[in-house]
Amino acid sequence: MTIQPGDKIPAATLYEMGPDGPGGVSTDDLFSGKTVVLFGLPGAFTPTCSAQHLPGFVKMADQLKAKGVDEIVCFAVNDAFVMGAWGKDRNVAGKVRMIADGDAELTKKMGLELDLSGKGLGLRCDRFAMIVEDGVVKSIDQEAPGAFEVSSAEAQLSKL
User: Is 125 assigned a catalytic role?
Assistant: First the structure.
């Protein structure tokens, strides 16, 4: 079942590239005591993700933060090396945290899996965006297959 407003973000260990390599990040550390916009996407360097989804959040980071967002987190079923390289490629420093769910642990716990087996991509995260306050989902917008509308930075800004 897909995570819903009012649900707590499940416990999981995610990964983020740091100066000394990948490091673990607990969901508790990521969400506790903060307002976070979490957006998930099928994969780093893929067309819609690279051309629209991530750039929109980078472009609107200041506006989102002005509305009380403490952190903006990009989330994908990729490894921390790929997420780190993608973040550097897209100049996200100081605007968006690039968080890897390499084993799809949190993706599965939230019911947001996207099976792209047979297309060479395997299990991925569906495209979505949510606003999380102190670890509790306040809103979630999951895209219809192939769509990019409700999970954009603009759509999330309108909810704040």
Answer: no
